[in-house]
Amino acid sequence: MGTKWMIRNGKFAVPGADKPVFEGYMVIDNDLITYIGEEAPVLEEDVPVFEGNRLLFLPGLVNTHGHAAMSLLRGYGDDLALQVWLQEKMWPMEGKFTGDDVYWGTALSVLEMLKGGTTTFLDMYDHMDRVAEVAEASGIRAVLMRGVIGLCPAEVQNQKLAEAVAFAKKWHNAADGRITAMISPHSPYTCPPDYIEKFVQAAHDLDLPIHTHMSETRREVEQNEADYGLRPVAHLEKLGMFTRPSLVAHAVHLNDEEIEILARNQVGVSHNPGSNLKLASGVARVPELLKAGVTVSLGTDGAASNNNLDMFEEMRLAALIHKGVSGDPTAVPAGEALRIATEYGAKSLFLNQVGRLAPGMKADFIAIDIDQPHLLPHTDLISHTVYSASAKDVEHVWVDGKQIIKHGECLTLDEEAIRRKAQEAFEGLLNR
Length: 432
Ligand SMILES: CSC[C@H]1O[C@@H](n2cnc3c(O)ncnc32)[C@H](O)[C@@H]1O
Ligand SMILES: [Zn+2]
What we know:
The structure is a single chain. The protein is α/β, with parallel strands linked by helices and 432 residues long. It has two domains: 4-59 and 354-410, Urease, subunit C, domain 1, CATH 2.30.40; 61-348, TIM Barrel (Alpha-Beta Barrel). The protein has 15 helices and 18 strands. The protein has helices spanning 82-94, 99-115, 128-138, 154-171, 193-206, 218-228, 232-238, 256-264, 273-278, 286-291, 311-326, 334-341, 343-348, 381-388, 415-431; strands spanning 4-13, 21-29, 32-37, 49-51, 55-59, 61-63, 118-125, 141-148, 179-181, 184-185, 210-214, 246-250, 268-271, 296-298, 365-369, 394-399, 402-406, 409-410. Helix 4 packs parallel to helix 5. It binds ligand LTUXU72L and zinc ion (ZN). It comes from Paenibacillus durus. Belongs to the metallo-dependent hydrolases superfamily. MTA/SAH deaminase family.
């Protein structure tokens, strides 16, 4: 396609609007949506036309928490609680990861995410230059950060912090703006208070947001109280974290006062229902968070605790489990689940031109094939997207106006090589 092109006869999803699905047209000019509506656009010149019949166009899905390279550990350490899983299974294997392992594990995840309709992902890990290389080459949008565990001598702590800062300086706004950076101490239980304060200072100096794991398990909250006399939310507030734009992952174990603190400080919460269920961490208080005005988004976490990166599955889980827990069938309705996975996800990542199909927004969107048995009849296509669809239904994906997935095939990455190299990387880790 040239710089300007048009989709016609497609169905378009605008969750939250008075008419959340309509049939019509969308015009894309370079990386931006310039028109969307039921009426044919008035254009000065003839433009290439993409036939949208039998397709539902949606904003690309936004995965706001994960560790892409952990796809190499998918199925390695199932049915364990978080601390055992981390200490006995993940950390010993991750200690052996080379830059190449991170590259191929990330490539495997990015391939899975793109094919499943995720157009933006957040990644917190080590060897982040290799993650950024994959993001740059694949065409996906990425919010990247060197995640830091500070359970080490001061000298190593300083070196890790310096790496996090150098990574952010090098990659923030790289790849035509598709890559942005954050600053990321791993968690209050792996980073001592004075070390977290250094990350807050770095985030101030670089004018970047902060991301961390927080209040994932009951045990973590109790340990935080025992160690520091405060629950994690008050602890991080005291350390100044929320003076920066912040996004916390999990936030499963919150009391009312903590929800109020998060809302007051405009701290976003990345809800990871699949990972939280699998690690038996609990269920986050999403309806209460939404009611308090907290921006809630969705993350898969790594593929080793999920065990896939299907954001349709996370949307469905988010829409279902809160009904089950609260006994209220209106808790997290389908339209809200879709907004959580798109619009609120982009807001959580401070990407103000992403997450909705509207003029002036980035042309990050996907098309799902709605002419399939499990998506018929077309009673309510927002409902079908959340309750009936899956990653397998994604037919096409565009980021920044460029097509990346066409009829389910990736145009930017060598799928065959990635599948082979990822398997080899895992076998290499076992034998190292
Ligand atoms: C410092 S790089 C990221 C670090 O996070 C670990 N991790 C993966 N999933 C979780 C989770 O659910 N809670 C806490 N930490 C997690 C991963 O293994 C890496 O070591
Ligand atoms: Zn995580």
